[in-house]
Every structure is written in C-alpha cells, then in structure tokens.
Design brief:
2 domains; 7 helices; eight-stranded mixed β-sheet; Purple Acid Phosphatase, chain A, domain 2; 16 strands
C-alpha cells in the first residue's frame, strides 16, 4: 500500500479489512503525509495521528515503510524540512533513500543499482526501467497513483488522494519464480485488466467504473521516461549534445522495455509527434534538431 497523503480514514479501512489476518510483511510505499501540499506543522500532526494505525499493522506483520516526496516541506531539497524532523513513527522499520535493511531474513533496499536477486526493491517514485528490467526478487513502488503489475513489479496506486474515489491496497504472494497479486478496493470494488491495445503496459488495477488509463489519457507519461532512457542508451553520453533518430530510439527502447511490434509502433508515433512540434512542451523529454531529419536530443529541462 502507499500514498494516503495524510488521510486517516484510508488507513483505518485497511486496518478494519485485514483484522485477524497475519502477513510476513506489511509494506507502505511513501507519501504517508501531505507535508509538501500543506505545511510542515500540518504534516507532523498528520504523521503523529497515523501512528496508531501503523502500530496495529505492525502487529500483523513486519512493517517496512519508506517516505515519499510529499513527506518533505515544499521548497528546494536543500532547505525543505522532512516531516521526520518533527516526529518519527515508533512501529516498524523505516527504509531511507539509498539504504538497505534486513527484516526477518529478507533484505529490502531502495538502491536500484545494487538490488540483487534475493532483495526486494522499494522506491516511492516508479521507474519504468525497473518495471521491465528487474534483477531483484520483487519491486514495489507508488507515487504515480497508476496501479499496475508487470511480472514481479507492482505499483500500488494510492490509498487516498484528493478529488478521486477511495483507493485500494494489495495482497501479494511471492515465491522464487512468480508473484500473484490481489487488489482490494477500500470502498468500491476494483478490477484488473490487460488492455488489448496496450498489453505492453501490463495488468492494470482500476476502480470498477474505469477502463484502460492509456486509452483514456494516452501513453505520454510512461513514454516520456522510456524515451529518455532509450535516448541515453542510444547516444551513450547524455551530457554531450548528441542526437539520435526516432528509429534508433525505438530500437533501443524495444531492447530495454518491451520487444513487440505494437509497443514499437506506439512509441514511434509518440516520438514522431514530438518531432513535428514547432516547439517542445514543458514535459517533452526530447526535442527535434536538424533540417527535416528525424533526429532528437534531450530537452534542456530534462536532467540526465
């Protein structure tokens, strides 16, 4: 579970729904509070008020949790206070960015680069690269609020966010070879689906009334990260003003992520649309250069 953004009711619902259950581990993937969207003092009070629910969950399994971007005061990372500067949860095990811990014989890490075959990787921000190129035993993340599964990678969506229906939590069974996932809506039923037009995106978990989010909103969000990763791999050094053709980026993306014709065609259409724009939009990862040739380079606003 993850992304309750300071809301108590959603955690209470998880506690009520799992009464009498026992788990090996209970994982929370961050954005426990809404500090960055409110203020530091409010975030501290939210965290303090949520502790009783974490205490109960910790009695039902080894609790491991991370914090997310909303758990830090708004502002630059150098000046923004973290909510834990004002209060820290007592129950469970806090896994901090860049660290690893062992809990009941299982190693958990936030480091994508060193996660080994027996480790469970936890991050708040979701990584397309890890979803499709996983070396760890399993990968769990949150942040984007887009619940989905690809093999042994799972984004847990959200428990609560303003302006939407109540979210969901997941029960996961993990063995040495595969991972089975069951979604549980907090109020209304959630369902799982694999869209025939976007099968490469994996199994999606959605409220009962919703259908494929890529059909509804388009694939721009996952394609932004995929295109950037593929570009970097294609040119090897993103710090230099290098370029790559649309075909080169698509070829590399298929090697990194999903090697299917449908995926390649859809990514090509996305990149081709970027190339046709007169000027890049703020979130465009790549922008065109050259005179009539389909070459792209990193948008100046994109970091490497």
């Amino acid at each position: 579970m993850g992304d309750n953004h300071g809301d108590q009711t959603s955690l209470q619902r998880v506690v009520d729904a799992t009464e009498g259950a026992a788990f090996d581990y209970v994982l929370h993937l961050g954005d426990i509070t809404d500090t960055s969207k409110t203020d530091f003092e409010t975030g501290v009070e939210q965290l303090r008020s949520l502790e009783p629910y974490f205490e109960i969950l910790a009695e039902r399994g080894e609790l491991v949790y991370i914090h997310g971007n909303r758990d830090e005061e708004a502002g630059t990372t150098s000046t923004g206070r973290h909510v834990t500067d004002g209060f820290e949860l007592t129950p469970g095990h806090c896994l901090r960015v860049g660290e690893s811990i062992e809990v009941a014989g299982q190693r958990f890490t936030t480091d994508r680069e060193t996660a080994g075959r027996d480790d469970i990787l936890l991050t708040h921000h979701d990584s397309q690269r890890q979803f499709y190129d996983l070396d760890a035993r399993a990968y769990f993340c949150g942040h984007s609020h887009k619940a989905r599964q690809v093999d042994r990678s799972l984004n847990t969506g959200y428990l609560w966010k303003e302006g939407t229906s109540p979210g969901a939590y997941f029960l996961v069974e993990l063995d040495a070879f595969e991972m089975s996932v069951a979604v549980h809506g907090l109020v209304e039923p959630w369902h799982e689906m694999v869209c025939p037009d976007h099968a490469w995106y994996g199994t999606q978990f959605l409220p009962a009334a919703e259908e494929c989010r890529l059909c509804t909103f388009g694939p721009d969000r996952p394609f932004r990260e995929m295109a950037t990763e593929a570009f970097i791999e294609a040119v090897e050094s993103p710090a230099e003003p290098r370029t790559a053709t649309v075909d080169e980026i698509v070829t590399r993306a298929r090697e990194l992520f999903v090697d299917t014709e449908d995926y390649g065609r859809q990514l090509f259409e996305y990149l081709d649309a970027l190339f046709e724009r007169d000027r890049p939009a703020p979130k465009d990862p790549l922008h065109p250069v050259g005179d009539g040739t389909a070459t792209l380079r990193l948008h100046p606003n994109q970091s490497d």
